[in-house]
Design goal:
Rossmann fold, 2 domains, about 25% strand, alpha+beta, 4-stranded antiparallel sheet, 6-stranded mixed sheet
């Protein structure tokens, strides 16, 4: 009986102690980290695509090269945005009526609003010790707030690269779409007018080239001085498969253009067109009537 009495007393004492303790506040859920950059979406009137203005980028460095780079980036960016038709663009021939900004701090928003602009793309270009720095701001003309901003650094060799990247990022942030400005085309051409040499019959040479989606910035890929045709991009956009007759019969090669490597997929096999074994190929028999094995496309 004494043991039972002690257990009851102890239980009563614990309950009394707990009752006298102040209630604990509920656990506060962890706050999500604050975003490092605030982005908003600019919309047009009545659901229409937003109207953007893309004036010439500001050359912070006043040398001739910086001014030319700023002009190139702004023009190519305008063309990229205009190509995809996801924004309404204010024609550039009316920009002369608006005072040009010299920095992000003196943008004449009221004048741009008179042209019914919803968004305004302002950029600066500045040379650095190692290359180029490009800053971008997309302003909401109504609120005068930055809707999107980025900073880029890199080489001065190809200013078009900055414009293409900016265009794709603006499409993604403002329209939720993947842009095509950084798409690369691959094609075969005899534009260099070269002729095959050696003992092979006198035929035109076709080499492979890559270019930006708008046909600019063309670069030669192959230099074999033979027939290279029917190129196709790999799914990751880093390699090109094509048919080449550099060994006599048509064989499939893969050029890893970013690693400067070349694979011959059908090396040691019979010719795809004539069935000639590797040791018995001749230019006139095994290299005639080439037939491609891949469909050219862009990535």
């Amino acid at each position: 009986m004494k043991q039972i009495f002690l257990i009851v007393v102890l239980a009563s004492t614990v309950a009394s102690t707990r009752a006298r303790q102040p209630p604990q506040p509920p656990a506060t859920p962890a706050q999500p980290p604050q975003p490092s950059e605030v982005e908003t979406t600019i919309t047009g009137d009545s659901g229409a695509p937003p109207r953007l203005a893309v004036p010439e980028f500001i050359a912070v460095s006043k040398d001739t090269e910086s001014v030319a780079i700023a002009r190139t980036i702004s023009q190519v960016l305008f063309d990229d945005l205009n190509f995809e038709r996801e924004f309404g663009l204010i024609p550039r021939d009316v920009y002369a009526t608006i005072p040009a900004a010299t920095s992000f701090a003196d943008v004449p928003f009221d004048r741009w609003r008179e042209l019914n602009a919803d968004g305004l793309v302002i950029g600066t270009v500045q040379k650095t010790g190692t290359g180029l720095k490009v800053e971008l701001r997309l302003f909401n003309v109504r609120t005068r707030q930055t809707a999107y901003g980025r900073e880029y650094s890199g080489s001065t060799a190809n200013p078009r690269v900055y414009a293409h990247q900016i265009s794709d990022e603006l499409h993604l942030s403002q329209r939720g779409l993947k842009g095509v400005a950084r798409t690369k085309l691959v094609f075969d051409s005899d534009r260099d007018g070269e002729r095959m040499g050696g003992t092979i019959e006198n035929r035109g040479v076709k080499e492979l080239y890559i270019a930006d989606y708008d046909g600019d910035n063309q670069r030669r890929v192959t230099v074999s001085r033979t027939l290279n045709i029917n190129p196709a991009w790999s799914p990751d956009g880093r390699s090109i498969a094509y048919t080449s007759y550099r060994r006599g019969g048509g064989q499939i090669f893969v050029s890893h253009i970013f690693q400067a490597l070349l694979d011959e997929l059908t090396k040691g096999e019979r010719s795809a067109r004539t069935g000639c074994p590797p040791g018995r190929r001749t230019a006139r028999v095994c290299a005639s009537r080439p037939r491609g094995t891949a469909t050219a496309r862009s990535t």
